[in-house]
Structures are given as C-alpha cells and as structure tokens.
Specification:
Length: 194
Amino acid sequence: MLETLEQEVKRYVTQLFEKTDTSKLFYHNYQHTFEVVQRIEALAVDLNPTDLLLLKMAGWFHDLGYLYTYHEHEEKGMVLAASYLKKHPIDPAKIKLITACIEATKMSLEPRNYLEEIIKDADIGYGTTERFLQTGALLRKEWEVFLEKFYLDKEWEVLQYNFLIHVQFYTNIAQKEYGPLLQKNIIQQKKRSL
C-alpha cells in the first residue's frame, strides 16, 4: 500500500512541477527534487522498506513549497504533504514523520533522528557532485530573481567556498560516499575564491 502511495505522491509532485511555471526556479526545480529522492535511496541502504518509502515521500514534497513561496517554503511543503496524504489511507503518525523530515531540510535545523539525517544529507548533496560549479551558478541566478541578492564574481566564489567548508554530513554512508568529492570541490573552490 505504501509503495502505491509513494508512486502516487511522485506523480502528484511531478504534475505540479509540470503545470507550474518554474522557469525562474533555476535550482529548486523538479531536477533537484528528483536528485534528492535518488540520493535518499542511495543513502538509505540500511532502512526498512516502510521507512524508506516514507522518507522518499518526504523527499518528493520537501521543496514543493517553492512553487508557492520562496520564503518558508518548508512550511508550505509540510502543509501540502499533510493535506495530500490525509486524503489517503495512511496512519497520521506516518504523516507526522514525513512532515518532520521535510522540516528537517531547513538549513537552520539539526536533524533529530536517523531519517532526518538521511534527508538532510541528501538535500545538501549539491556540494558533493561533479556539477557543483554549474549548480552553484543556477542557485546564484535564482537568488538574484527571488531574493534580489547580487554578488560580484569574487564574492560568490568566497560564499561558495564558505558553504562547502561548513557542509556537515550526519550519516556514515554520506561521509564515505560524498566526503572525497566534497574535499575535491573544497580544494577547487578555494582556488577560485583566492
């Protein structure tokens, strides 16, 4: 039953992204959401099937709020998730777990349990890809549009470097899988920020 619901959630989120103008969401778009769900699957090797499905649902909803608001998008995503899931036969405690995992993706929050650690590591993953520079450029454009934050090139490079050196992985698997590439990106970004 949860497998079917997770597929319905995926379809629902995909359709919302497709029918909404996301042309200015250069970073927080469907591609990012899809990659976060992929990273959840990769990091959740020791989760039981139920927790994995719940965490994937949180992954699908985690940035859906960006379709409606740039500020406090996590809260909007939590509301969207709860509203959608309440229409389905799912235990309210599981809905609460999903919304807590969405909330855990806030940059300012520390994860409170293993599921929250996994989604936090999956969401921060953009600093740990080969496409870090390209992805960062997309985020920069998005901030210009939505936050009216404009950076000189050197300022942006320093900001990116500071972001990378403060990335913290909570799970052992993320440290093992993403740590080496993060270190490579830090070295590369340090050169760019000098």
